[in-house]
Amino acid sequence: MKYNITNLLYSVSLVLIFFTSFQLSAQEQVVRGQVIDAGTKEPILGATVIEQDAENRTVTGVVTDFDGNFAIRIKSNSNKLVISTIGYTTQTLEIGAIRAFSVELVEKVEGLDEIVITGSKGSDDGLLNIADRNLTTSVVTVKATDIQNTQAASIDEALQGRVPGVDITANSGDPGAGMQIRIRGTSSITGSSDPLIVVDGMPYETSIPEDFNFGTADQQGYAALLNVAPADIESITILKDAAATAMWGSRAAAGVLIINTKRGSVGAPKIGYSFTGTVQKMPNTIPMLNGDQYSQLIPEAYMNRTGTPLNTLTVKEFQYDPQEVYYYKNYGNNTDWVDAITQTGLTGEHNISLQGGGERARYYSSVGYYNSKGVTKGTAYERLNGRLNLDYVVSDRIRFKADISYTHTDTDRNYVNGTSNGADRLRSVAYVKMPNMSIYEYDDFGDITPNYFSPAANIQGQYAGTYNPVAMAEFATNNQIGERIVPHFNLKVDLVPDRLISTFDIQYDFNSTKAKSFLPQNATGRPFTETVVNRASDADVDATSITTKTNFIYTPSLGDKHSFQSILSLQSNDYRYESHQALTSNTASSLLTDPSVPSRTQNSDLQLYTNNSQSRNVAALINAQYGYDDRYLINVGLRADGNSKFGPDNRYALFPSISTRWRISAEKFMENLDWVDDFSMRASLGQSGRAPRYDYRYFNIYSNYASEYLGMNGIYPSNIQLNNLRWETLTGTNLGFNVQLFDKRVMMDIDLYKNRTKDLLFQNIDITSISGYSSLSDQNVGVLDNQGWEIGLYTTPFKNDKWTIDFNFNISRNQNVIREISEFYPNESGNIDRNGEYKRFLQVDNPFGSFYGYKFKGVYSDLESTKALDANGNVIVGPNGQEVYMRFNYPNIDYTFQPGDAIYEDINKDGNIDSRDIVYLGNSNPKFTGGFGPSFSYNKQFKLQLFFTYRLDYDIINGTDMITTNMYGFDNQSTAVLSRWRNPGDVTDIPRAIYRGGYNWLGSSRYVEDASFLRFRSATFSYNFSKNFIKSLKLDDLNLYFTADNIMTFTKYRGQDPEVNMRGGDPFGIAIDYSRTPPTRRFTLGLRTRF
């Protein structure tokens, strides 16, 4: 952290020195004056008054106050004063010996509208500045004004469903949870498939280090874009095809999200303020058994397994004897645990900004505060953010920018014990918690106490996943605090006016994240001697990134029919981090929550951990675009990347790109079609690369043993030296069409693409122990294809003086297929012989994210139905002439199916359900994604916007259904089990209850569901107050709006919510619904004004 603070102080000092240098003067001379309107004689607020020297270089400057007055400290009497503001003619005055001026500015003839229309809409991504109509690649831009009335903590949530080819899903409905962004599918099996984020032309580090161990924190749920306040964003541009992303190098293989923040404008200072208040409600949950129904289920399950009744003399949780007051009161309830941990969520957000400037200096500054309490108790998110964007014209040829942003975040999450399957999460625990158990403890006299009922043990268990969920929500803590500051400086010099421009950018990114969790004794009820008691974790990471970019942009004038732009860009990035973690237990008191106090670290699951690492990336880019006669455009680029994560032989790589655009509508044969505004065809081909996850893997790394011998610790090699690791390379082709008709009343963008990723990086791959190692950190193993198409339709079907009706629609189709996979490394995972697990393969010609298992056929209604049948439908007869009954995994397990057990299809008709009966069940990649919605505007005051999102034809595993219908242990079950098999002859699809026995919940098609959905995502009604009313309040604008989010979801999925994604970074990851908090139903009232 010392390194970060030192650099931060240097950066702030440089900014202060730069700006104060313009105001330092050896001569203490002050010139005063007033600026007024020559016609009305009214004072002019915000006029710029600058001192210029003989070479027209700016020396210092000020702006006028509310009365038009100014006072400026000048350097030399021989200089001049330049007074200017928007809408008025600039005046230049010689200073000489005059110390007081009265300046009258004359209003210009041309108005603001004439100024605005001279500009052209373009895509400013920090490289070439190309007008949108001349783009040769697949690019989509979304204005912040299009989504400003949505209620979202981060901009990626607001973009959900609005951009074709961009699939955005929520990791959780808890405050501060992240969104998973996939542009044109999953392009890597273990590398990051998240897009590169670029803010104001510079790459933005969006996450904590991937190999940082958060312990009990949820790394996957970390929200990458929460550090960028939506209120500060001007526009978002998404680069989708490989030719566009190739310009951004090794971190852009999965696409690029370019964010441009708001900047100052010429004019009087304007204050903007916005407020939103949101109420959040939990959607309908899965109905569960009450205490009475549960008390009937458990004895039945026990009887089916043992053949004897449950002994309630020893199992007093089901005794229900009024004489046993303590057990009768504490285990005689009908508790809805899910409802008990659910609350009404509240969110409030305030943003205030100041924007203005003159022709020389412009500024935008903002402060925002966001606070959200989640619908699950114990969850909350708080953010304080500030931004200052300064633009200064030093002279006609030199311009300077300085941007500084700061974000403080404070996130509270529910405590988790680090289990990988998600069954330990609070809402999952609440679903299966014994419903006959009381939330609060009753004493021996039957009186309720204020203490949560957390017994040391009961029939349900005594470990993680069985604790009182309400006590866990209140007492167990899991907190993350983030501090981030990002100063960015830009210097732009016109080396040859109107020909050659040079820009230099440097950005420092200081990001400190601290995760702290504590599991106290009163949340578990366990004895103080156990390591789960007073378990304290303290983890922090300090990440620092220094990025530079030097551009030389050449734009010669080649005549009316020719256009040309070229750029040489030299870039570098130095990223380093330090992390520390302490995980201990048995602190002396539940009030001592820090692991630094005396506590235990002897157990294998307790640890002290530290790590530091550094990686560097350098790049050179050459890119040029030529256009002829506004019809033919070609863009050619070549990027060279060097990355320190590779060995010397493969450290550098070249990534070329070429793209073209043919404006067909400009051809002579189209000139009579006046209703065609633009019709263009694009084609592109490009490459981009991806570096491995870990640093230093081309070295042999040694680790030390934890144990001692003769007072010394030994060391051992912890990895195989990887000298031949290659870049994971994505090659993409794209064919696109852009159509604009009827004065842009109808616009359509169509793209067809195919991306192939070669040399797929497989992380932490298991290898034979003969090598002396258990795994390889990275290895190149195969080829993955993503191909599909996208359509975006933007229409204005009706428009007159009063009414405007718009309708937008987008749809995307993506197909993901593994083409090659190495046979020398493991390509499967999952033990299908156990209940609750699915088989996962990396299988050629099947999609990534596929899962395999048994085909569920129903329930054996009686003993006769359990007989094994051959391919002809005849009963299989054993060697002694006996009839054979269906068995499971003979001879390894040899379980004989009984009436009431689940039926699995015997694919090979051998009477034995085993690995030869495993079939492909589905995959978690949606075939179609998109969104659509109309908007209705009346008199430019009333506006109604409706928006729908959808994901179609994809499969997920209903893990919640699996754990709430298996009737395997003492967990509570859903009301679906009320139709379970009970007696011979029963016809049902719910197997019998059997305690710790049977194979009724094997990984099978029973829990695989089509999660297709159509969601009524939002409805917004907004009202812009009339100009007369606004003027009477001395405001520039005033807008009031009401938004309802996640109003209704149309789906056949039986779980809480169908929006479940594959967890990133796992080569065998599949989409499993473990009852995380679903997206909440939200109702927002918002206000926005400017004055």
TrEMBL record:
Keyword Oxidoreductase included in the entry's annotation: no
Entry-linked InterPro entries: Beta-barrel_TonB, Beta-barrel_TonB_sf, CarboxyPept-like_regulatory, Plug_dom, Plug_dom_sf, TonB-dep_OMP_SusC/RagA, TonB-dep_OMP_SusC/RagA_CS, TonB-dep_rcpt-like
UniProt keyword list: Cell outer membrane, Membrane, Signal, TonB box, Transmembrane, Transmembrane beta strand, Transport
UniProt key word Transmembrane: yes
Residues annotated as signal peptide: 1-26
Compartment annotation: Cell outer membrane
Gene Ontology, cellular component aspect: cell outer membrane
Pfam families, A to Z: CarbopepD_reg_2, Plug, TonB_dep_Rec_b-barrel
TonB-dependent receptor-like beta-barrel domain span: 459-1047
Domain TonB-dependent receptor plug stretches: 133-256
Protein name: SusC/RagA family TonB-linked outer membrane protein
Taxonomic source organism: Aestuariibaculum suncheonense
The organism's taxonomic lineage, starting at the top: Bacteria, Pseudomonadati, Bacteroidota, Flavobacteriia, Flavobacteriales
